[in-house]
Specification:
Layout lengths: L19 H5 L3 H11 L3 H14 L5 H4 L7 H17 L2 H8 L3 H19 L4 H13 L4 E6 L2 E5 L11 H8 L18 H15 L1 E3 H11 L24 H17 L2 H12 L3 H8 L3 H19 L4 H18 L6
Antiparallel strand pairs: 1-2, 2-3
């Protein structure tokens, strides 16, 4: 007898894939006899094929199929993976041992398809970023509010939670990103400073963020990174500040702070809006001013930035602009309000 493998209640969530009549249609004795005689044969393969083609449609092909769509080839590839898993882990024998009717056996086969899909899931750069975000939310200025499900807010915030908006995801998408490093390891996407700013922006926008919503927000904001991309669990903490020597890094951070202090709220909001990609008219409307007035804010903001950075090296300019971009988008709540 095969060792029992705990896969949870096999009947808990298969109801939508086939009806009660479908579940009871079949011959458990024939299924068991085929396995005893030849292992996983045509009868088993037919059941696995049907289960794979039905279950796979619920899973993103870019993450679980290794192809862009669930076509015949990708489903057949999944079937082979299910067969291999069931044989190497003794699951076909387990099904024969524990199934009390054919519907039970079929439910267990469907469960094997789901487990195989979960095993296939490739870790993405957003997975790593989400893990970093959860770690960062455990530290000031954030505090955990609930444990099931987990949720966080900025410490001492007493505002009620509100739904997130497309404006928030557009703002996050506009934050400066780190380039890939030319290896199989994925880009960490954001520096630690940018990640902190992004989490502040999220908490300010929704007051209290649950982990499920945090993951959705990151996926929607960083679509290009949410596709299947093989990365290690450790990928995700590199920082582009390594391009600067220590003295230049100190100076660059001082320049960023000086610009942040010099920019008025309106100037920062205009810069944030431009980085997000807003049209001039939309920026003016959000600020509640005329377009010529908004243009003056933009001109004065650009002048302040030019005055501070004209004589600096390209590396310093790039670092300061990336940090300033993150700072003004975060402070402006995503742009001109």
């Amino acid at each position: 007898m095969a060792d029992e493998v705990d896969v949870g209640d096999p009947l808990a969530d298969f109801g939508e894939e086939f009806g009660a009549a479908d579940a009871s249609t079949g011959d458990l004795k024939a299924l068991i006899e085929e396995f005893e005689r030849r292992g996983i044969g045509p009868f088993w393969l037919q059941e696995i094929q049907t289960a794979a083609s039905r279950v796979a449609r619920r899973y993103s092909p870019s993450v679980y199929a290794r192809t862009a769509t669930w076509d015949d080839d990708s489903v057949n590839d999944l079937v082979q993976d299910v067969v291999e898993r069931m044989m190497t882990k003794g699951q076909a024998e387990y099904i024969c041992d524990v199934a009390n009717d054919f519907g039970h056996a079929r439910a267990l086969i469907y469960r094997q398809v789901r487990i195989t899909l979960i095993d296939r899931r490739q870790r993405t750069a957003v997975d790593n970023l989400f893990d970093r975000a959860v770690e960062r939310l455990a530290e000031p200025p954030f505090e955990q509010v609930k444990t099931k499900p987990r949720s966080w807010r900025i410490a001492d915030c007493i505002l009620e939670a509100t739904p997130y908006t497309r404006r928030l995801t557009a703002s996050l998408a506009a934050l400066p990103r780190l380039p890939g490093n030319g290896t199989e390891r994925a880009s960490p996407i954001w520096t630690t400073e940018t990640l902190t700013g992004a989490l502040i922006l999220i908490c300010n926008a929704v007051s209290e963020i649950q982990e499920f919503d945090l993951r959705k927000i990151l996926d929607e904001s960083l679509t290009v990174f949410a596709t299947a991309e093989v990365v290690s669990d450790e990928a995700g903490s590199a920082d582009s500040s390594g391009e600067l020597d220590p003295s230049d890094l100190i100076m660059a951070n001082e320049l960023t702070e000086r610009l942040d202090e010099a920019l008025t709220h309106e100037e920062a909001a205009v810069l944030a809006g431009k980085w997000i990609g807003d049209a001039d008219g939309d920026i003016a409307r959000r600020l509640g001013v005329s377009r010529p007035t908004a243009a003056k804010y933009k001109a004065s903001a650009f002048a302040k930035v030019r005055d501070e950075l004209t004589s600096q090296s390209e590396a310093v300019v790039r670092y300061v602009l990336e940090r300033l971009q993150s700072v003004v988008i975060t402070k402006a709540g995503g742009g001109a309000l």
